[in-house]
Design brief:
six-stranded antiparallel β-sheet, eight-stranded parallel β-barrel, 19% helix, 700 residues, alpha+beta
Length: 700
């Protein structure tokens, strides 16, 4: 670009305090961070985005923020940036003024991303390609940022503010959950509008869902390798705009449909949690495109390998790692989070690869900058915070290491529950720990039992039904020679791989699903349900369906098992009805002062002590009375007895002395339809391969 290309108009100085584009009623202030850039150009485009009409140099620089104010620039105006500087990959700099760049603070886009060679800063066919320099203009192949209308993003949203007690999280994909729902109007399916439609709200309310956790809905793009295979990034873990709702889910209401969705969820008493991806960006490694951060200031936004800054630290497995240690990157993350809370009403966040965000130079640090900043923020300290406590970097597995008030996805819980019901040896002790909220992991630094997010299936892996139908992954449709996805699924197909009409196999599978669901709902901690598991949804054995935007992943509501839906709803009601299943404190077998009974006891079926050392231990009872805090001299404590019979034969269970009351069996996974049964004797028979829950009631 030559000096003659720059429009001579000079913007007013403006101010550096608010990054992004902000209209004040008369004009728009633009502010952009770039520490190492030498010149920053604001590019204004025609209303259709096809023609660059002005290229204006931002001369004002305060610290590392370039800024200017343009009178008359209205909401809806289209813009982007070009940054001039050193193209020196060997030293970590990849400036290329020929590439149009997305504003990291953009709240909306006009047009779509394309995988065109012009979006790359280098010549793809050159020797040592990424060291070369490409002079083509990329503007025609990059969406334009939209100056936002302040009226659409008022900071007046209110979060619902539900606590963790009675929490039930429903993990769902906006499109996948609604695309085939017969109760959703066809014109709305796959959109934000559909997600909180009456049909969806009725279903979620029936299940007792307290929060929906949406797979990524921040603006994203698909990886070039997927596009070449005719696929897309369906899950959305490839973010390019942290302040913009993903437009592929827009319905008739456009961008306002997102806020309207949140408001409707709130009216139904349901919170909204977003799965957010601040650990990496969509620009991939040194061979990726230059569409935003790389061209704005590569050495600031990304973590580069010490001594080899040409290359990116890849603790995420996605080609690059955003550097949350940098004050302006950290600021961007916090500004983004506050935007979703204050402008959109979002109630919480699940941080994908959360370990990455907490890495200092010496590694993961629970007292590091990101966590310190997040926990002291007056807006963010009051919303739900959930970590995926791992990444693929050194020391990346950090389950239990996050500080309060974080909750964490507990993959050890998932594996322990699957292994026990599959019949793996030495799996009973792990099940016992899982049932008690994984206290050995989480009971420290004042953390609560709700800190463990308990699940038997999530978007990443087999669905619950598929854990009972497949022993091997079937991911060929992903185009990676079936080499992607988990290889340790702790699943069982009951003798037939995949779909079958054999009634005996189908019955065994249905029982296993009910056992897994019941275990999740009866455990201390926060239960999470993968959308569709309540109806027996299958992905045909694909345990890594991240690129399947089709009927593989779209829930087939017409095929839902209504009995399983009712069973799941019964489990949810049972959990809500019994506070002893939702303890505020961890239970460790302490003696309660008022009645001198233990808060929790483990029993064998004959009433004796369990032999935890028995590698084949397959039947056990958990007697929950609750902590001393719930016992009052004038109030009866809630008591629940949970019995697991993994044997292939029925077993006689000796019940604890009811003390003038009666035991009532309210949950029995042998049957789908639940009904209370009063037990009149001192023992009861449990069917093979079943779980039962009993409640102590006044004798009739």
């Amino acid at each position: 670009m030559t000096r003659q290309d720059v429009v001579t108009a000079t913007p007013e100085p403006g101010n550096p305090h608010r990054l992004g584009a902000h209209f004040d009623g008369e004009g728009t202030n633009f502010a952009l961070f770039s520490k190492h850039g030498q010149e920053v150009f604001l590019c204004l485009f025609s209303s259709d985005g096809t023609r660059e009409e002005q290229r204006i140099a931002l001369r004002e620089r305060t610290g590392s923020v370039w800024h200017g104010y343009l009178p008359g620039v209205q909401p809806g105006a289209l813009y982007g940036y070009r940054v001039a500087g050193s193209y020196d990959p060997q030293n970590g700099h990849r400036f290329n003024v020929n590439k149009l760049l997305i504003d990291p603070y953009a709240r909306g886009f006009h047009g779509a991303f394309t995988n065109h060679d012009a979006t790359y800063g280098y010549q793809k066919n050159a020797p040592e390609a990424d060291l070369s320099f490409d002079t083509r203009d990329s503007a025609a192949h990059v969406p334009k940022c939209v100056v936002p209308d302040p009226a659409l993003f008022l900071r007046d949203a209110k979060t619902l503010g539900r606590g963790w007690d009675n929490a039930l999280i429903y993990e769902a994909h906006v499109k996948g959950a609604t695309m085939r729902h017969p109760g959703v109007p066809e014109a709305l399916r796959g959109t934000y509008d559909a997600m909180a439609s009456p049909a969806m709200l009725d279903h979620l309310t029936k299940l007792g869902v307290s929060a929906v956790e949406l797979l990524p809905v921040q603006a994203m793009m698909s990886e070039p390798a997927l596009l070449k295979r005719g696929l897309v990034n369906y899950w959305g873990y490839n973010t390019v705009g942290f302040f913009a709702p993903e437009p592929r889910y827009f319905g008739p209401a456009g961008i306002t449909g997102f806020r309207a969705m949140v408001d409707r969820f709130h009216e139904a008493g349901i919170e909204v949690i977003l799965d957010v991806v601040y650990n990496h960006s969509a620009e991939s490694d040194q061979f990726g495109p230059t569409i935003s951060f790389r061209g704005l200031d590569n050495a600031s936004y990304y973590r580069l390998i010490d001594g080899q800054p040409r290359f990116y630290v890849n603790d995420t497995g996605c080609g690059n790692t955003l550097d949350a240690r940098h004050p302006f990157v950290l600021r961007m993350i916090l500004d983004s989070l506050r935007f979703w809370v204050e402008c959109m009403g979002v109630d919480g966040f699940r941080f994908d690869l959360g370990t990455t965000l907490c890495r200092e130079r010496h590694g993961f640090d629970r007292r590091g900058g990101f966590l310190d900043a997040l926990r002291q923020d007056p807006v963010l300290m009051g919303v739900k915070l959930i970590a995926e406590p791992w990444d693929i970097g050194p020391g990346g597995y950090q389950l239990g290491a996050f500080p309060a008030p974080f909750a964490e996805w507990n993959d050890q819980y998932r594996d322990s529950v699957r292994r026990f019901w599959r019949g793996d040896p030495q799996s009973a002790p792990d099940l016992g720990r899982a049932l008690m909220g994984s206290a050995e992991v989480f009971d420290r630094h004042g953390r609560r039992p709700w800190s463990t997010i308990n699940y038997a299936a999530s978007h990443d892996g087999f669905t619950l039904a598929d854990t009972t139908a497949f022993e091997a992954r079937h991911n060929h449709a992903n185009g990676e020679n079936n080499a992607d996805g988990h290889h340790s699924n702790f699943s069982e197909n009951f003798g037939i791989e995949g779909k079958t009409d054999d009634p005996k196999v189908r019955a065994k599978r249905a029982l296993r699903v009910r056992n897994l669901l019941a275990t999740v709902f009866l455990s201390q901690g926060t239960p999470m349900l993968l959308a569709g598991d309540e109806g027996g949804n299958t992905q045909a054995g694909n345990n890594n369906a991240y690129c399947q935007d089709n009927e593989t992943t779209w829930l087939d509501w017409d095929q839902f098992d209504p009995e399983l839906v009712e069973f799941t709803a019964a489990l949810s009601r049972f959990r809500r009805a019994h506070p002893v299943l939702r303890q505020a404190d961890f239970l460790h077998g302490a003696t309660r002062p008022l009645d001198h009974k233990k808060d929790v006891e483990w029993r064998a079926f004959d009433g004796g002590a369990l032999n935890w050392r028995d590698p084949g231990l397959a039947n056990l009872c958990l007697h929950l009375r609750g902590s001393a805090e719930v016992v009052r001299s004038d109030v009866d404590a809630d008591e629940v007895l949970i019995a697991f019979n993994r044997e292939s034969a029925p077993l006689e269970l000796c019940l604890p002395d009811p003390g003038g009351k009666a035991w009532v069996r309210e949950i029995d996974t042998r049957i789908a339809a639940q009904s209370a049964q009063i037990i009149t004797g001192s023992s009861v028979t449990l069917a093979p391969k079943t779980l039962c829950a009993f409640v102590l009631r006044d004798a009739v």
